[in-house]
Design goal:
Length: about 240
């Protein structure tokens, strides 16, 4: 599946377009379009279902929970509506540089569904290769997904964790926002602009190739990150 992913630390998280084209009709594969609904309705990969993407950013019952869904029963019901079982291989993608697909993967991973792969290059690469597209709004057959345990917090850094993390030389805060957000010139509606003291900056878009937004080669990415002090021995918190 990942013949083009030599050198990745976690190659199992990457799905190449060739593999998806070969397995797109497999019964144990569900393709999730993780983009906004308007984008899904405009064009998507044939057989893909819309991921109900707004729910992966906020808890559907509490919009203040901006770091994502937290209720296991609610999550299981939502995933079951998408036709996904614990045995399903989920391939997520979007047309936004994998921004939404990565958030969806993160939510699935927190609830223990680790068989989730992100389509390398997303809809951009699929389209550039001349592969088929669809406008059919599919409604998957709902299944029952067993309620998992509470989401693990290994991948979360909360506000009260920040002071200790800042004092730890082996912890790096990586600001992946735009230059304007990093400097504070663009507050994006927040009360204060700026950044976490001591953070390093590299906008997430800089990790992608253009015009088809695939990840840059592993060696190049490692060099870029090492220049910022981000190395495999460090704990990294992104924001």
């Amino acid at each position: 599946m990942t013949s083009n992913a030599d050198g990745w630390a976690r190659p199992e998280l990457i799905c190449e377009t060739d593999w998806l084209a070969e397995h797109i009709e497999d019964d144990d594969v569900v393709v999730l379009d993780c983009d906004l609904l308007d984008a899904y309705l405009r064009l998507h990969i044939p057989g893909a279902v819309w991921s109900l993407s707004r729910y992966w950013k906020t808890d559907p019952r509490d919009d203040s929970q901006i770091y994502g869904m937290t209720d296991p029963e609610q999550w299981a019901q939502l995933v079951g509506r998408l036709g996904i079982t614990p045995e399903t291989t989920v391939v997520g993608y979007d047309g936004s540089g994998s921004l939404y697909a990565a958030r969806t993967w993160w939510t699935f991973d927190r609830f223990g569904h680790t068989n989730f792969k992100i389509l390398h290059g997303g809809l951009d690469k699929w389209y550039a290769e001349g592969r088929p597209l669809s406008r059919q709004n599919l409604r998957p057959r709902a299944v029952e997904y067993p309620t998992p345990s509470a989401p693990h917090d290994d991948s979360i850094c909360r506000l009260h964790d920040i002071p200790d993390a800042l004092a730890d030389d082996n912890h790096v805060f990586w600001d992946v926002r735009s230059e304007g957000e990093w400097t504070g010139a663009n507050r994006r509606g927040t009360q204060r602009g700026g950044r976490i003291p001591g953070a390093v900056h590299l906008e997430w878009l800089e990790t992608l190739e253009e015009p088809v937004r695939t990840l840059k080669p592993p060696a190049e990415l490692r060099a870029m990150l090492a220049d910022l002090g981000i190395t495999p021995d460090k704990t990294v918190t992104t924001y």
